[in-house]
Amino acid sequence: MRYKKVEGFKFLHVANAFLSQVPWKVTYEGRKIEWDAALDLLYPEVANAEQSCYLVYLDDEVKPVYVGQYSGVFKDRWGLKKGKYIWHGKHDDTIKAALIEGRKVSIWLSVDPYAELSDGRKVNINKGIEQIIIEAIQPKWNTTGKSNDSTVGEPVINICAKYDRNLPEIASSVWASFEKDNLNNYLEKLIKKDEMSWGELQEEKMTGLSRCRHFLNYVSSGVKPEDAMVFVWREFP
Questions:
Q1: Residue 150 counted as domain residue
Q2: How confident is the model at residue 147 (pLDDT cuts 50, 70, 90)?
Q3: Across 73-94, average pLDDT
Q4: I need a surface site. Which of 46, 142, 155, 171 has the fewest CB within 10 A?
Q5: Distances in Å between the alpha carbon of 235 and those of 51, 126, 189, 206, 217?
Q6: Structural domain of residue 215, as residue ranges?
Q7: Global pTM value
Q8: By C-alpha distance, which of 180, 232, 225, 228 is closest to 209?
Q9: Cβ neighbours of 7 (radius 10 Å)
Q10: Does 73 share its domain with 190?
C-alpha cells in the first residue's frame, strides 16, 4: 500500500483513472455522448469510504493538481456510474484530456480525517484538511478556496470576550448619544419593562440595544423619531 504525507496529513493511493475501451452511452443535457473516463479502485471497499479529503496527482509530480472533499461516500462524490465511469464534476474533461495525453492520474484519500476534542470525541475535519492544503499548495486545478485565508477574520471567542467585558460601556455610549441628540424622551419607550426570567432579561438587553442603535441610525438618516420608533418595534418586537 502506498502512502504519502501532505501538510502533515496521511493519504493512501486508492485509485487510478483510465480510459475504458467500452464507453458508457448516456444522454446528457439533450446530447448523446459516449463517456470513457473511469476509475480503477485499487481496493473495492473504497467505493464506500466515509467522508474524507482526496488529492488528484498527475504522473509523479510532487504536488497534487487538485484537492477536494466530500460528505457521504467516495463513490457518490466521484459519480462512479456503472461502478467505474467518472461523473465527478467540472474537471472530468480535464482528467480525460490528461489521460489522452498519456498522463497518469492517481487519486489519494485521507486515511484519518479526524481531530479529537478535549472531551475525547472525534470530529471529521475533511473540509479543514482541504482548506489547509489548498492554502499551502495552491493546486492548479482548484478554482475556489485559493484566495481564502483561514486566518482572516475576528475569532468569535475574542468578540465574546469584548462584549462580556465592555457591554456596559457600549450601552452607556448609546445612551449618551440619546442625550446628545435630545432624544432622551424616546429612550424609555424603546426598552421593555415586562417581568422576565433571567434568560429573557439577558436577551432583551441585547434586543433593546439593537432597537436603540437602529433608532439612532434612522433618525440620523432623516427619519422622524416617531416613524423610527414604529420601524424599530416592527423590526425588533
A1: no
A2: low
A3: 87
A4: 155
A5: 41, 39, 15, 14, 13
A6: 156-235
A7: 0.69
A8: 232
A9: 12
A10: no
**Quick one: which of 29, 94, 33, 97 has its CA closest to 68?**
94
Q: What percent of the chain has a predicted confidence (pLDDT) above 70?
A: 95
Whole-number pLDDT of residue 208: 86
* DSSP per-residue string spanning 147-177: T--TT-S--HHHHHHHHHHHHHHHHHHHHHH
Query: Is 145's pLDDT higher than 70?
Result: no
Q: What is the pLDDT of residue 150?
A: 55
For residues 96 and 179, membership in a common domain is answered with no
How does DSSP assign 12-65, residue by residue? EEEEEEEEEEEEEEEEETTEEEEEEEEEEESSGGGGGPPSEEEEEEETT-SS-S
Residues 76 and 117 in one domain: yes
Indicate the number of domains in the chain. Answer: 2
* 152-190 burial: b if 16+ Cβ within 10 Å, else e: eeeeeeeeeeeeeeeeeeeeeeeeebbeeeebeebbeeb
Say yes or no: 100 and 188 in one domain.
no
